[in-house]
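The following block was generated as part of the benchmark described in Methods. Ligand: zinc ion.
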Amino acid sequence: MSDSLLLEQARMLCQDKGVRFTTVREQVFSLLADSNGSMGAYDLLTQLQKTDAKAKPPTIYRALDFLLEHGFVHKVESQNAYVLCNHFAEHHKAQLLICDSCGDVQEMNSSAISKALLTAAKQRDFKIVEPTIEAHGLCKKCQQN
Ligand SMILES: [Zn+2]
Ligand SMILES: [Zn+2]
C-alpha cells in the first residue's frame, strides 16, 4: 500500500473512532510509513524538526503514545524504536522478527501464538500487560550475505 493511501486510511480510522489525528501525529505516522525499518524517538525528532523547528521530545512521545494506543505502531522494546503496523485497522497483538544485522523488523500477526501465550500465562496466574513478542536473528537477505 502506498504511503498516501495508508495516511488516508489512518485519517478515516481516527474519524470513525472520534479521535483527533493532529498534524504532529500525522507527521510522525508519515515518517514511520516512509522508513524502511524501525525508528527511534530521537531519529523521529530530528526528522520532525526539519519541518517544525519547535518540536521537542515530549512532542514526539505524546504523538507516539497516541499511535501506540490506537494500534498504528508497534514498539520494538529491544531496539527502543517504533515500526508502523502493516494492518493497523486490526489493532492486534504482534510478534516481531528482528534482524540483528540490518535492523529490519518484520511483524507477524499469529492469533495462535497470542492465544498460546495467554493460556500459558494464565496457568501461572500471570497477567500480561504487554503481549508483544520479539525474536532476534537474521533476515533472509542477511543470511545470504
Ligand atoms: Zn501490526
Ligand atoms: Zn537483515
